[in-house]
Amino acid sequence: MKKAVMTVFLGALILGIFAGLALGQGKYPTKPIEIIVPYSPGGGTDIMFRNIEKIISQYKLVPQPINIINRGGGGGAIGKAYCLSKPADGYTFTCFDLGTVSQQIEGKAKWDFRKDFSYIARLVSDINLLIVRADAPYKNVKELVEAIKQKGPKSISVGGTATYAADHFGNITMNKATKQEFGYVPFNSGGEVLTNLLGGHIQAAWANPNECVGQLDAKQVKILAVATEKRSPLFPDQPTFREQGYDVVNTQTRSIVGRAGIPQEAIDFWVSVLGKVRETPEWKDYLRKNLLEDGWLVKEEFFKDAENDYRIAKAIMDEAGVSKK
């Protein structure tokens, strides 16, 4: 009798342990996920997150739906602030980019990048291009510089996404390197930048390859310079700024973060899921087609990279006289 009771007890105990494990594994996520794209549709960040959602859905990597929500405005500040206003429960995420730290430095955002975000993963590294319409009279940066010398300061407007983000920093660096004053016109997304360039409202633009690859293929735009240290294997026939005599290097990364304080379970879950996304042929195809480089860093290493972004932005903005923090 005692043996039978003990067997029943042990059986119940083992079942309880496995049930507990199953419950723990199924605890998160239990409701839909929101990923806030803090820019208008059509830009590089929007394209990236929509590709991630598509791959996750295709491979059934997350048992809940993922909703991609565009909340553009304020150079990305509105969407990021919205994410930080949500509960720290691991169900709302947004992007982290150079603009996140520059808006803090400029005093346009109330967040502190060191304290207010949970760092999940840095996903891609994106180079920057200076492009013009295909019918523009400029063949290279030197000809663009000669044109602005003749027309006067700010006579040539260059579009980009947001203020004091990667595109704006590229323009500041170009102005310093060329000793000219190219105007800078900020838009809410790379898609808006391209629309205004093709519409003739601006004369040049900063663009990531994935934002303008369609227009390049259609021969609607052309590249004047690539803002990398050395000639990019993605554009072996296109010269860098440095090759043309101007010290302009400008790249950016795209990442995913949540509000500070979200459960470690959620952070680990997304690092695992995004790691699986990264190994799919679809993700590798996305990188190839959009001319992106893998930028994979997670958790603490990602945070260290964010601190480096802050140091770079602070130095540029201190020199420009716009730093407040």
What is the number of beta strands?
11
SSE class: alpha/beta
Number of domains: 2
Second CATH tier, the architecture of the largest domain: 3-Layer(aba) Sandwich
Radius of gyration: 23 Å
- Percent of residues in helices comes to 40-55%
Q: pLDDT under 50 segments (min length 5)? A: 1-24
Tell me the series of helices and strands, N- to C-terminal.
Answer: HEHEHEHEEHEHEHEHEEHHEH
CATH class term of the largest domain: Alpha Beta
- CATH third-tier fold name of the largest domain: D-Maltodextrin-Binding Protein, domain 2
Shape: globular
Largest sheet: 6 strands, mixed
Give the overall average pLDDT.
91
Which homologous superfamily in CATH is the superfamily of the largest domain?
Bordetella uptake gene, domain 1
**How big a fraction of the residues is strand?**
15-25%
Q: Give the strand line-up of the largest sheet.
A: 2-1-3-10-4-11
In DSSP terms (H or I, runs of 4 or more residues), the helix count works out at: 11
Report on the architecture of this protein:
The chain is an alpha/beta fold. It has two domains: 33-125 and 252-320, D-Maltodextrin-Binding Protein, domain 2, CATH 3.40.190; 129-249, D-Maltodextrin-Binding Protein, domain 2 (3-Layer(aba) Sandwich). It has helices spanning 2-25, 44-59, 77-85, 98-106, 141-151, 166-178, 190-198, 209-217, 264-278, 281-289, 299-320; strands spanning 33-37, 66-70, 92-96, 117-127, 129-133, 157-161, 183-187, 204-207, 221-226, 251-259, 293-298. The strands form two sheets. Strands 2-1-3-10-4-11 form a six-stranded mixed sheet, with helices on both faces. A five-stranded mixed sheet has the order 7-6-8-5-9, with helices on both faces. The longest helix is centred in the N-terminal third of the chain and has 24 residues, at 2-25.
